[in-house]
Amino acid sequence: MYQEAEFCEGVNPELDGFSVRTRKVARYLHRHFTVCNSCREEEVNLLEVAERRTKKESAMLFYETLVMKTRGFVDVKRADRYSILETSQMGANVGR
Predict the structure, then answer these.
(1) Residues 41, 43: Cα–Cα separation, whole Å
(2) What is the CATH number of the domain that holds 19?
(3) In the chain, N or C: fewer CB atoms in 10 Å?
(4) What are the Cα distances from residue 47, in Å, to 10, 12, 20, 25, 87?
């Protein structure tokens, strides 16, 4: 994520209140939602998204996902304690 040279130019105006880091994570998740939608999956597994990331990047991804949840851009759910988090997209153009 840090290595990606996207500075969120042309981002969805709904994300204007978010930090640059939150918008970057929104774009990253949007790409995963697009891939999952083409495979007929409704949800993205955050463990798979954070795969091959450092602890710092994974923690940032988790935190920024919760920031987007508080604003109603994504839905986060977990079947039971200590299980894998599943994220689903609520807005149609979250990462654009």
Answers:
(1) 6
(2) 1.10.10.580
(3) C
(4) 28, 26, 23, 15, 10
- Containing domain of residue 47, as a range? 13-89
Report the domain count for the chain: 1
With CA atoms as reference, report the closest residue to 32 among 19, 18, 16, 45.
45
Radius of gyration of the chain (CA): 13
Q: What is the DSSP letter of 3?
A: S
Helices (H), ranges, 39-75: 46-49, 55-70
Phi-psi region of 89 (alpha: psi -120 to 50; beta: other; left: phi over 0): beta
Instruction: Report the half-sphere exposure of 12 (CA within 13 A, side-chain side).
Output: 16
pLDDT in tens, the chain (96 residues): 443 334 344 446 566 678 889 888 888 888 888 877 777 777 888 888 888 999 999 999 999 999 988 988 888 888 887 777 888 877 544 444
